[in-house]
């Protein structure tokens, strides 16, 4: 398979990244205004919701035709890639440690990791549940929206032919 990147794909990632960054910034400000800046609640909530959404969208994209390759690039790589960052997690932990809050720093790190893993599991389950629900609907079955025969590579190739 060729790895030709199209302008459409680049614009999808660029646009998604811009919107994800702005969403993260504005949501972070709102969370800090409500919960304060003493503990990195904003980073924790943003990273956990991002993990949930990445798992949910990836599951739907892999098992249905509801989210095509370009939309997946926009949502997962662009928007959610900019919305969640590991570097923010590390910085939040370091800030707590530098402030002498050793126990809160480790609790934050543990909560972030476990919360992220649980969010991924929940996102996959929600995605699988959504696919199951769609498959039970006769109208959805007749539209052929599930990806049972096409691999991601086949879908990408078909999209490039259009």
General description of the model:
The chain is an all-alpha fold and 162 residues long. It has one domain. The protein is 81% helix and 0% strand. Helix 1 packs parallel to helix 3, helix 2 runs antiparallel to helix 3 and helix 4 packs antiparallel against helix 5. The C terminus is likely disordered.
For the structure shown, list the relevant keywords:
single chain; 162 residues; mainly alpha; 7 helices; transmembrane
Topology overview:
Elements lengths: L6 H29 L5 H23 L5 H15 L2 H13 L3 H35 L1 H6 L8 H10 L1
Helix pairs in contact: 1-2, 1-3, 2-3, 2-5, 4-5
H and E string:
HHHHHHH
Q: Strand percentage, roughly?
A: under 5%
Major β-sheet profile: none
Number of domains: 1
Segments where pLDDT lies below 50 for 5+ residues? Answer: 154-162
Number of strands: 0
Q: Which radius of gyration do the C-alpha atoms yield?
A: 19 Å
Mean pLDDT: 84
**What is the molecular shape?**
globular
Structure annotation, total helices: 7
Oligomer state equals: single chain
First-to-last CA distance: 17 Å
Structural class: mainly alpha
| Helical proportion, percent range | over 70%
């Amino acid at each position: 398979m060729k790895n030709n990147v199209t302008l459409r794909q680049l614009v999808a990632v660029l646009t998604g990244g811009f919107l994800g960054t702005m969403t993260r910034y504005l949501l972070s400000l709102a969370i800090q205004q409500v919960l304060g800046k003493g503990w990195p609640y904003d980073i924790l909530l943003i990273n956990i919701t991002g993990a949930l959404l990445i798992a949910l969208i990836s599951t739907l994209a892999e098992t249905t035709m509801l989210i095509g390759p370009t939309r997946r690039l926009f949502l997962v790589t662009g928007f959610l890639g900019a919305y969640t960052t590991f570097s923010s997690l590390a910085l939040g932990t370091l800030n707590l440690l530098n402030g002498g809050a050793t126990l809160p720093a480790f609790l934050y790190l543990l909560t972030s990791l476990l919360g992220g893993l649980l969010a991924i599991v929940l996102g996959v389950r929600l995605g699988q549940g959504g696919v199951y629900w769609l498959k039970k609907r006769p109208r959805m079955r007749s539209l052929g929206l599930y990806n049972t025969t096409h691999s991601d590579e086949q879908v990408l190739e078909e999209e490039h032919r259009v």
